[in-house]
Write the structure tokens for this entry.
Amino acid sequence: MKVNIEIDDKHAEPSITIQTNEWSDELEEIVAIIKRKNRKRILGIESDQTVLLDPNQVEFVYAEKRKILACIGKRNIEVRMKLYEIEDVLAPYGFMRFSKSVIGNLNHIERFELSFNGNLCVYFHSGNKEFITRKYVKSIKDRLVMGGQSDDC
């Protein structure tokens, strides 16, 4: 890979252009690294205390009874953000939309089971399970085949 860096006063802010003939795992990693620099922190509420959540530990985030909850093992921690906002923040960590109300971490998936209606049942390493609706099954399979799961799992 060839890297060119041009430092000049005519540039008001940094801009990155990648020229290639095809998408690769290497490019996926580069984009993830670049996005990490501008990442927000996620704060959760548990037992009337504010806790700082490590996105790498979150298995999935879901909406239930007008609340957004992050699942870490057996803990469900309330997050005071909209689901689409959390999706944007967590995307560089391997999260994808599972359904209208669930965003899941692909790096915590242990196995899948196909349901009779075309949905996938996802089992996480902790034993928790969630469903991926048919609408999102293909994009998640494509991402996993492309290398969506990290080595640090």
User: Anything to note?
Assistant: The chain has a mean pLDDT of 85.
